[in-house]
Amino acid sequence: MSGHHPSAPIAGQVRHIENLLEQRGVIAPGEIDHRIDALLAGGSPLNGARIVARAWTDPAFRDRLLADANTAIRELELSMGGGEELRLKVIANGPGEHHVVVCTLCSCYPTTLLGPSPTWYKSDAYRARVVRDPRGVLGDFDLELPADTRITVWDASAESRYMVLPRRPEGTDALTETELAALVTRNGLIGTALV
Amino acid sequence: MREAFNPGDRVRTTTFDPPGHTRLPRYARGAVGEIVERAGNHPRAEDRARGLPGEPQPVYHVRFRASDLFGSGDHTVTVELWQDYLEPLTNHDGNAAP
Question: Domain segments of chain A: what residues?
Fold first, then answer.
């Protein structure tokens, strides 16, 4: 189970296991740090924001993105990365419809498109509560949705990673794709905020 | 392993409590849901974690009503589940679960 606990007993246990694996030659010294660096390299919510801005300005791209996100994001020279590419599923908010993403079992997250996950995303409180009471959790993020908005929580429990396609804000018709991308926030891509 | 379910099919998750890790969240055990979409074929994560070969099997997005999972809530929860975790609903089950 993950969580933010630098001083917790589990952090010491992990260091101990890492040392043992290095001493026994299972992994090279520093290999875990290198792997983590490689995982995070290039990962940024700017990538997700670019995808959203393109979907807002190009309806055909939006359709391709919702049908097969892995293929569509290659048009922006993006990928989910990794040896065996993870499946990306993009879920679109709409009028009366809101989506929010969680990993209740650990902390699965589309790191290449959103960067490192926020601490709260990995917290036991968020993971346990958002599936049971999404309105309450979204309220903690100062996001109050109309009572008739249908909420779907997506639990990343297997091999897919999810990203929310937020609704395009009103009054942005004159903005360029680059200007639109600058409006998109990380929380908007997780579903804990609107854009 | 062939795909046993199609989008729209109603399924019940297993209640089997394995000795080790499972990617079937506890809150979704023994619950009735609906197949939303296929999500490819993969060996089960719990097999891979143990270094077992694990034959790839279909994975699905399965949607549950919060009221069926937790007894309250007007939202839905979509969980991604391996085919091994799912059983088809019999007619009896279907009648019992609207």
Answer: 9-39, 42-190
